[in-house]
Structure formats: structure tokens, C-alpha cells
Fold:
Amino acid sequence: MFATHLHPVIYGDYPEIMKKHVGHKLPSFTPEQSKMLINSFDFIGINYYSARYTAHLPHIDPGRARFRTDQHFEERGINDYDDGLKSREGILNDTFRISYHKDHLKQLHKAIM
Structure:
């Protein structure tokens, strides 16, 4: 599942199948960059709170960019608006965010157990 994302930081290059399908849209690494990439991580975080479903589309022109099928990312979580008027104490007394994370972790624990 994460092979295309982790392959460069484990092996220093993209998987061959990815290079074949993405072609010139995929940037390449110099030999020095490849050496620097190998085992360059000390932590890998995985967003587990979102699901993406895919389907095989047999008739796609790889030379044509596709908004719906090219990968894109969305940020999810708490919508936080800062108008610059909150005091330091108000920012630190963030009971809404604390409650959100506490409830989220409680539900995660229930799902695991």
C-alpha cells in the first residue's frame, strides 16, 4: 500500500512500475540524492483517518493529466481560524481541541480493542 511512497527513502529511487506509468512527470534523483535518500527517515507517520478507494480504468492516456485520477491530498481534522484577537491564555486554554483529540483517541482505542 505504501510502496510507492516509501520506496525512495528505503532504496533511493522510485519503483520501476511507478517510473513506467508516470514517465516524465516523475522527477529523477542524481546518484548523490539517491544515496542521501536511503534510510533517511527516523519516523514515518501514517494518516489512518481517511480512506481512498480506487478502480482500474483500462483506457487511460498516460500523456494526459487527469484531475480525478492523478493523486492529490486533502487536509482533514479541526478547522482552526485565528483572527489574531485571542490572548495567549485563550490560545493555551484550548478545550475544544483537547476534547477533540481525547475523544478521537478514545474511539481509536475502542476500535483496536
In short: The radius of gyration is 20 Å.
